[in-house]
Amino acid sequence: MSHPHPISSHPAVDIQRQPHRRQHQHRPGSAAAFRWSVILNSCLSALQLVIGLAFGSLALIGDAIHNLGDVAGLLLGWGAERLSARAPSARYTYGFGRSTQLASLANAVLILMASAVVLVEGLQRLFDPVAVTTGPVLWAAGLGVAVNLLSARLFGADSRHDLNRQAAVVHLLTDAAVSAAVLVAALIVGATGWNWLDAATGIGVGLAVAWSGFELLRQAMGISLDAVPAGIELAEVEATLRDLPGVLNVHHLHVWGLSTSQTALTAHVVRRPGLVDDLDWLHQAKQQLAQLGIAHSTIQLEPPGEEG
Which residues neighbour 286 within 8 Å (Cβ) at sequence distance 6 or greater? Predict the structure, then answer.
């Protein structure tokens, strides 16, 4: 079949041959978001830990531990995102996009470890309450709410499309909620003298942290096992390909995550030849798949009767 477009300039080929850096580039403000979040949360963790230990608040100590886990997680995520931008090599032909998935998995483990520490200490203190000085705890908890909301805001709305950044935002928003719970508990303890409430709040903090950790672990494990990424329906992808001109069948369809932000597809498409130029058809297919969130697609075209 003749090709009316020069192969080197056809849009379908140009998209497929994009340099690696264009396919894996950082979003604007990404490094700054990680850097400032690490700085702010490091300072916050140190302050909360000192105040929690000095004035007897387990809930605030739990918040500080979770914040320290966030700092470690943010550093892992930042490093993984930098690795994911490195060009492929002869050994790592897909590049290092999976490093963001490994960072998300490590973050989940850190969260679960922190939650276990807080839960054990909370259960012990529930039956042996410790007197809490609420004034400094209130200030530290309020500062925690502000710092975590500001840090989450730094990552912007596009964090929803990247599990690595989504992990960071989940950490930060969970901490903001935890700090708010600590603040409310400190107000009640100050008004009533119910010191056991601080331990009960600490247990609640531990459970909230554990829940977020399990959810993140579930998502990270799914991507590590090449599950179809969240937000993409395999049936919709197949229907999109079948609706293109001349398509008779779609088989060997696979969709998985190359990284936490880039989705890949391979498929065999049985197509009636002659209706549309192959490269024009591929261009249409890639445009349609891009609208579904699939940026990297490899499609093998087959004539009728050669399905394998």
Answer: 12, 15, 16, 297
Q: What pLDDT, in 10s, does the model give residues 247-281?
A: 999 999 999 988 766 789 999 999 988 778 888 99
Residue-wise pLDDT for 107-164, tens only, equals: 788 878 878 887 888 888 888 877 777 888 889 889 989 988 888 888 765 556 666 6
Answer positive or negative: Cα dihedral of 19, 23, 29, 30: negative
Give this prediction's pTM.
0.67
Query: Which single residue is written with the structure tokens 């020069």?
Result: 6
Closest CA to 106 of 116, 118, 98: 98
What is the arrangement of strands in the sheet containing 247-257, beginning at the earlier edge strand? 247-257, 263-271, 296-302
Nearest alpha carbon to residue 130 among 202, 187, 209, 49: 202
Nearest alpha carbon to residue 268 among 245, 292, 249: 249
Distance CA 138, CA 22 (A): 47
Strand partners, 270: 249, 302
How far apart CA 111 and CA 40 sit, in angstroms, is 19
List 301's β-bridge partners, or say none: 269
State how far the alpha carbon of 71 is from the alpha carbons of 43, 77, 246, in Å: 10, 10, 53
